[in-house]
Amino acid sequence: MKRLIRWALNHLPRTFLQRIAGISVPVLGWFYIGRGVECPVCGTRRRKFLPYGYVHSRPNALCPRCLSLERHRLLWLYLQRETDLPTAYPRILHIAPEVCLMRKLRKHYDGHPGLYLTADLESPLADMHFDVQHIPLEDDFTDVVICNHILEHVEDDRQALRELHR
Fold it and tell me: Is the pTM of this model over 0.85?
């Protein structure tokens, strides 16, 4: 399983993986049915999480139901426990939205159109497409920016931070 996942991550186009992951990964999850771990994002219980990694595969990393990784589960727990997000509706700009968090936030924002916006350079799942170094939105557009695991991928991280701050 570990080799299959690593091969797919390294050989298939990212946009293709984004389109098929919602169907294919849950099918793999059936091989992990059990009660050893629980995902705080989707609440599913499995014997363990799937392995994940481009270079070195990490065991017990990917939730087979919602596709969350360790960092996504930690961020979700933080948002639930340390912010007013579960009860409030701040205007959110979610850069490079993680599927697991995007699903939860879209559901939370049902009935509040326009307050949750996703953006990515190329993901077919995002509402808008732009480079985070040049955000085509007016100043003070958003109350909250979720931008997780992005700055190491941009050419000028300082410019990206200036744009996010703007």
Answer: no
